[in-house]
Amino acid sequence: MPHGPSRRLQAVDAGIAPPSPEQQAFDTLHHRIDTQRALLADWQAAIDAYEQRHAQDVLPLLRQYRRLHVDLLERLDQAASGGLRLGRTDAQALHELIVDIADSLLLGEDDAAQRDAIDRLRARYVDEPDDAEPPAATDDPEALLRRLEAEHDAAEAARAAQRAAHRREAAARKKQREPEAVEANQSLRAVYRQLVSALHPDREPDPAERQRKTVLMQHVNEAYAAQRLADLLQLQQSIADADTRRAAQAGQLPAERLAAYNRLLADQLSALQREVRELEADFKARHHLNPHGRLKPGTLGEHLRIEQAKLTNGIREMQREARLLDDADTLKQWVKAQRRMARQAGDDD
Description:
Blueprint: H1 5-14, H2 21-81, H3 88-107, H4 112-123, H5 141-176, H6 178-199, H7 207-225, H8 229-239, H9 242-249, H10 255-286, H11 300-324, H12 328-348
Helix pairs in contact: 2-3, 2-10, 2-11, 3-4, 3-12, 6-7, 6-8, 6-10, 7-8
């Protein structure tokens, strides 16, 4: 169906009145819904392909990269507790480095036993205030667990309050739009009833035609259950009587009916846009991507290749570093270099 300026020009050339604003909005909404559905399908296909390749090509590298960090943590723990001679400042830097690595490993650790082991190792290098009591809970796994649970409960309470606020706002918006929704739903039901009347297979004597109408009725029922007015209108257009078809093609549907259709179509468009946003946000959250970064379905493959290359290079660098740190003198120099880089980063901040 033509829409926008091209349709208006065609109307002028044909010597007929241009479509009304309601008809133009109707055509535009149909076009935008089709575009949004195509985008949603692209996202779903791209994410499915990404997840398959991620599990096959990236997850093994992530596990290897993580294992190398665990090995480094254990190596630094042995150095810190095994008599590696360092000055006070370098020793403190080593302790802070151990805590930083442990924190990063705890963020992605799902195995309870491994979490406990990392947690216990980390607790040995956490500095306590001078006035802290000797039997502090920092070295007690049970106390640490209680603290983490308390932090989790507080965060969950904040999220619950935020969700409640969102629900109240949604309820207020829904109440405000109830009159329009009633009118739009009445239009939806009107289209649905017309389609049921025209397509009911029990009224069709011809077997082949009855089978065709049975399939069409299934589509009608699915579209009505999902409140997809655009699908119902498309089906309606294919089976409507000649007068209705000519009126629709000429843009002569009543303005009040088109306005009701448009409100329902706008809601459907908003729902599709929200589904796309939520799909993209969930994908970014699961793969620890920048939630505000620009991402398109067609770029996921390139992003996967970049991630794989970074992991491969990181693994090689850590393996090379591990061989160098076998030497005590090299390990001392490495700790000093880490301290200098941390201090420089702090100065830059």
